[in-house]
Amino acid sequence: MIDDLPRNNFKRALKAGEAQIGLWLSMTSPVATEIVAGAGFDWMLVDMEHSANDLVEVAAHLRAAVGGSAEPVVRVPWNEPVMVKRVLDIGARSLLFPFVQSAEEARRAVAATRYPPKGIRGVAGTTRANRYGRVKDYPKRAEEEICILVQVETQTAVAAIEAIAAVEGVDGLFIGPADLSASMGHVGNWQLPEVWQTILAAGKRIRAAGKAPGFLSAREEECRAVLDGGFQFVAVGSDVGILARQSEALVRAYGSYRKAPQ
Q1: Under DSSP, is residue 151 helix (H, G, I), strand (E, B) or coil?
Q2: Has 61 been annotated as catalytic?
Q3: Cα–Cα distance, 151 to 222 (Å, whole number)
Q4: What is the pLDDT of residues 147-195, one digit of tens each?
C-alpha cells in the first residue's frame, strides 16, 4: 500500500535556484495534459482563472499528469479560501494565486493552504490529497510539499515585491506581463522598453529577496531574456497557442494546392 507523501521536486528546484521550464494549459482536455506531462517539461500550469476548467476538469488534469515529468501547478480563479481548500483536497500541491498586491494578500493565500493553527484550511479525512486516508500524519506534513506562487501583475504589486517575498510560505512570485503592461497604461504591449525593463528589474528584486521569479511568453527571445536575467520558472508557450499557430501554419503550407475560386 502506498502511504507516503510524494515529494514536490518542483518546489525543491525553485528553492535550490534551478530553472524550471513549463507550458501553460488552458484547454479542458486531460488528453492534452497527459501529452504535455510526458513531453519533458518541469512544470505545467492548469488554468482556472482564464479558462473553462472547473474542479472536475482539474481533477482529471491532475490524474493525467501522474507519471509525467511536469509538476501540475493550478492557477486558482481568485485568492479565495474555499476554492483553494477544494483544489488542495483533489490533490493539487502547487498553486498560483492571481492578482496578489500586498503582503497581507500573500499571507491570506498562505493561510488558505495551511491547517490550523497556522492557517484556515479545513480538515477532511479521506481525500485524493492524502491518498484517501493512507498518508500518515498528512495534516502535520502537507505544507512540506505545498508550493505557493503569487502573481505580481500591477504597479502596486511591483512596488511591494520585497514585502510580498518576505511572507513565510511564499515560494515564488510570477510576473504577469499582460496585466502589468495594462496597469502601466500600455495594455497588450509589454515589449515597450519601459514595461520590459520593469519586468527584468522585478525579477532581480525577487531573486535578491530569496524567492523564485516566474514569467510566461510564447516568444522565444523573451523567454531566453528572462531566463538569462535569473527568472526560474518560465512558461515558454501554451497549449492553445501551439494548436492555433501550428494549425494555421499547416493551412498556409498547403494553401497552394487549393482550387482557385470559380
Answers
A1: strand
A2: no
A3: 18
A4: 999 999 999 999 999 999 999 999 999 999 999 999 999 998 899 999 9
Per-residue confidence at 27, pLDDT binned at 50, 70, 90? Answer: very high
- The number of C-alpha atoms within 13 Å of 179 and in the hemisphere containing its C-beta is 18
| 8 Å CB contact between 61 and 53 | yes
Whole-angstrom distance, CA of residue 190 vs CA of residue 184: 9
Domains of the chain from N-terminus onward? 9-257 (3.20.20.60)
Catalytic residue among 12, 50, 118, 141: 50
Q: DSSP assignment of 191-239, as one string?
A: TSHHHHHHHHHHHHHHHHTTSEEEEE-S-HHHHHHHHHTT--EEEEEEH
Q: Cα–Cα–Cα angle for 245, 193, 209, nearest 5°? A: 95
